[in-house]
Hints:
The protein is of the alpha+beta class. It has two domains: 4-71; 85-321, Lipovitellin-phosvitin complex, beta-sheet shell regions. Helix content is 22%, strand content 40%. The protein contains five helices and twelve strands. It has helices at 4-34, 37-51, 55-71, 164-168, 266-272; strands at 85-100, 103-122, 128-143, 149-152, 175-179, 185-189, 216-226, 232-247, 250-259, 278-284, 289-302, 310-321. Strands 1, 2, 3, 4, 5, 6, 7, 8, 9, 10, 11 and 12 form a twelve-stranded antiparallel sheet that branches. Strand 10 and strand 11 (289-302) form a beta hairpin. Helix 1 runs antiparallel to helix 2 (37-51), helix 1 runs parallel beside helix 3 and helix 2 packs antiparallel against helix 3 (55-71). The protein is globular, with a radius of gyration of 26 Å.
Amino acid sequence: xxxxxxxxxxxxxxxxxxxxxxxxxxxxxxxxxxxxxxxxxxxxxxxxxxxxxxxxxxxxxxxxxxxxxxxxxxxxxxxxxxxxxxxxxxxxxxxxxxxxxxxxxxxxxxxxxxxxxxxxxxxxxxxxxxxxxxxxxxxxxxxxxxxxxxxxxxxxxxxxxxxxxxxxxxxxxxxxxxxxxxxxxxxxxxxxxxxxxxxxxxxxxxxxxxxxxxxxxxxxxxxxxxxxxxxxxxxxxxxxxxxxxxxxxxxxxxxxxxxxxxxxxxxxxxxxxxxxxxxxxxxxxxxxxxxxxxxxxxxxxxxxxxxxxxxxxxxxxxxxxxxxxxxxxxxxxxxx
Length: 336
């Protein structure tokens, strides 16, 4: 009969061994998504040493798990249902500080709105047609020592002159858009305002085929700026997307803008700051829609209007999918 103390020790080793194997698999997945294989393997080795398991065995377990995780692919596709209305809470905060000839002016703004897509049709190929509208908006602006300006479409009757044009577009169809499952825009009608903020088309573009964690895809975008001589200039940029991680059916996508056209004139650089995005997107693989977006700007341009001038731009854009269904609007003509 086995000695009681030896038996307890053996049972304990067996339990720790199982824990090490489980941890090995979990750390391997984490290491693959973050590129930290060495750190993960070191952590498992420490556990293995205290559990009486050969490090070679643990290393093989981790490497096998990493190989499986690295080879796994994911297909990102939009999936809407005709008749549903999808809403996102959108927040945009910004501070612009300009200094010229020793005088500084600071402009702060905050916009909170509800973006809604009323899905009208989904065809046999999976192409989706929806009406884009802004259901409500809450705006605030403050320029240095001037009085602040506010407008809330839910509570205010008459908007101030600064926000009058925006108020006219609230809860009216801005555009009717048809997209492919990859987010490519196939058709768009309506002339409602389209502010890109360097975020590209109305939909986040998805890769053409399945991708692994770490893979990239990109889109091209031309930005038109005004040169000092008054002529318009086209600046080529590209938005690079990378599948950073996948966890519990949610894909995390990193996004960053790269300027391809050499730009050395600070007067032109100042016009590009809002297009230089750097952020993160969370996409629900099963539901087929964006859960959230977060993009930050932190840019400084020296000499944008003379040698002693300075511009600082600090902003954040966030978008969160609303958990409760949005009331659908009766379809109407897009704003023209």
